[in-house]
Design goal:
- 10% of the residues lie in helices and 47% in strands.
- The protein has five domains: 99 residues, Immunoglobulin-like (Sandwich), CATH 2.60.40; 93 residues, Immunoglobulin-like, CATH 2.60.40; 90 residues, Immunoglobulin-like (Sandwich); 92 residues, Immunoglobulin-like, CATH 2.60.40.10; 93 residues, Immunoglobulin-like (Sandwich), CATH 2.60.40.10.
- By secondary structure, it is mostly beta strands.
């Protein structure tokens, strides 16, 4: 209504009455924070939108040492108020931020902060830009044997604080080990103690970092060597003694702290000849060796590792020799068609006979290799199957003992002939002038003992002296067991043998030799005397007549040729002869 009394009105939009006072939700840095970076800004989060001017004017920011206000600029983002100092904050300084109760929200006429809000924080110390120092860097021992520890160590110092120390080790084959180095309070050193399995030069770098992130390093080298020779133990020959010519296994346990290269066995025989054999395996190395002769052997195991370190160890073993089996056998010269040939041999050995075999070729050329069956008293036998026709069986016997020694007999042959009867048994007796009687016992078996079932007859042979030429007497086979031989000369001895003949016409061996003498002719006793006397008288008469005629003839011849006086001398001589 105006002064004239006129009235007017209008409807306003709906509105809200704000009666809530603003609050500080959070600050950054937070109250009581320490180690705040010197480059930090101050951020305040209000509970609602604020009146910018009153909020900024209510804020103050000072260090608590000098209480000098810190200059800066404000910026807003919604309910976030940011104060950015114009310069870096002082290190290790406590700062205080304050909001007075004059700050109000953006309502009209505006609600003010209920009470002042103050908080403090401590900035971090001055930045650490100095790296740690590394001194007295060592790797001991250097060189070191493989698989033994090397201690890498260093004195590490920093003007603030050491954060971490670690070591990077690179081996000769490459590969990087990045390991933390612990601190030894006794020596005041950081160290890394470990063993290395690769021979060669190793490079290392020690890295040290302080708590501010500053770092430093130092490097070095150390050598890993293999100076330890292999170890050789448990030398053995198995079996010991070994039997010639069998094998024995030479073995040894060979170990090395690094890597083996090769292992050899040097064997010296009793005759001082030697040979080298490569041994295989690990850690037990072995090689087979065949002993060529009996006696004491020396074997030396030589081992070399990858670094060239070597070692050796020696031992001995013995070898003994057994003789091969002995075979005793007597071959059967002849055998018969249709009968199995039993081959028997005596086989002995100074250990144990393991195998006895018979290798034979039959009459048809077929070859067989068969085992001989053992019997008593070291005898072995095999029956060769009966042959169907005549020919020759050849064979040899082969024996092996349990050591492996073997022997082979000589070659034997047996002639296979048709079966023949056993010979008869003969006797001879006198039956008269010019006649002898032969009588024999017929055979009932064949040679070899089989039954004689096909006897056909007998043949008779006569001889005029023992063992002389035989003359067959009968042209036809004699069927019986007696025979009269007639027409013989009286007063003479005769010898006989008889053979038996089977159905195949095979004749037996000769029987025993038997003899008989035919009687002399019969003459009366008186006639014999007269005859003898007559003959003597006739002989005497004839001699006397001859002497008389000779005398007369000589007398006539002497008379014709005598000189005078000689005739009387001749007569005297004749007279003397006659007297005598």
């Amino acid at each position: 209504m105006d002064t004239t009394g006129l009235r007017g009105y209008d409807n306003s939009p709906a509105f809200e009455i704000d009666s809530t006072r603003p609050t500080v939700v959070s600050t950054q840095p937070a109250s009581g924070a320490i180690g705040v970076p010197t480059s930090a800004i101050v951020l305040i989060r209000w509970s609602e939108l604020m009146d910018l001017a009153s909020a900024e004017s209510s804020f103050s920011f000072k260090d608590t040492t000098t209480w000098t206000p810190v200059a800066g600029a404000f910026s807003w983002g919604g309910a976030f108020m940011t104060f950015t100092p114009s310069a870096m904050l002082a290190p290790a300084t406590q700062y205080s931020a304050n909001l007075t109760a004059t700050a109000r929200d953006d309502s009209q006429p505006g609600n003010v902060l209920a009470s002042p809000y103050t908080w403090t924080f401590l900035t971090a110390a001055a930045p650490d830009t100095s790296p740690p120092t590394l001194m007295a860097v060592t790797a001991t021992p250097d060189p070191q044997d493989v698989f033994l520890r090397v201690n890498i160590s260093a004195l590490v110092q920093d003007d603030v604080a050491i954060g971490q120390v670690w070591c990077n080790v690179t081996g000769p084959l490459g590969g990087i080990a990045n390991l933390t180095m612990p601190y030894d309070g006794g020596s005041g050193r950081y160290y890394l103690s470990r063993a290395y399995s690769v021979v060669g030069v190793h490079d290392y770098i020690i890295w040290a970092a302080d708590t501010s992130g500053n770092w430093n390093s130092a490097s070095g080298q150390f050598a890993i060597e293999d100076n330890t020779p292999p170890m050789i133990n448990n030398l053995m020959a198995s079996p010991d003694p070994v039997i010639v010519p069998r094998q024995t296994t030479l073995s040894a346990t060979v170990t090395d702290n690094y890597q083996m290269s090769w292992v050899y066995a040097n064997v010296t025989a009793p005759d001082m000849t030697w040979s080298n054999r490569s041994m295989a395996g690990g850690p037990t190395y072995a090689v087979n060796y065949t002993a060529p002769m009996p006696g004491i052997y020396t074997f030396r195991v030589l081992a070399v590792d990858r670094s060239g370190n070597w070692n050796s160890a020696s031992d001995t073993f013995s070898a003994i020799q057994f003789q091969p089996p002995s075979i005793q056998h007597t071959a059967t010269a002849t055998w018969w068609v249709g009968d199995a040939l039993n081959v028997t041999a005596t086989v002995t050995d100074d250990t144990t006979v393991q195998i006895v075999r018979l290798n034979y070729t039959d009459v048809d050329g077929g070859v067989s290799n068969v085992s001989m069956s053992p019997g008593g008293s070291d005898e072995y036998h095999f029956s060769v199957p009966a042959q169907t026709h005549p020919g020759t069986i050849s064979y040899h016997i082969w024996a092996v003992d349990n050591i492996g020694n073997s022997t082979r007999s000589q070659a034997y042959t047996t002639s296979i002939i048709l079966r023949r009867p056993s010979p008869p048994v003969l006797t001879v007796s006198v039956i008269g002038n010019g006649a002898l009687r032969l009588q024999w016992t017929p055979p009932t078996t064949n040679e070899g003992g089989s039954a004689l079932t096909d006897l056909r007859g007998f043949i008779i042979y006569r001889m005029t002296q023992s063992g002389g030429q035989r003359t067959r007497v009968n042209t036809m086979l004699v069927q019986g067991t007696t025979f009269n031989d007639t027409g013989l000369t009286d007063g003479r001895a005769y010898w006989y043998v008889v053979t038996a003949v089977n159905s195949q016409g095979t004749e037996s061996n000769y029987s025993n030799e038997a003899s008989g003498t035919t009687p002399s002719p019969t003459v009366p006793a008186d006639n014999n005397v007269i005859l003898i006397a007559t003959v003597i008288i006739v002989i005497i008469v004839v001699v006397l007549l001859l002497l008389l005629l000779l005398r007369r003839r000589k007398k006539k011849d002497g008379e014709k040729h005598l000189e005078p006086g000689q005739e009387s001398q001749k007569e005297a001589t004749f007279e003397q002869v006659e007297r005598q």
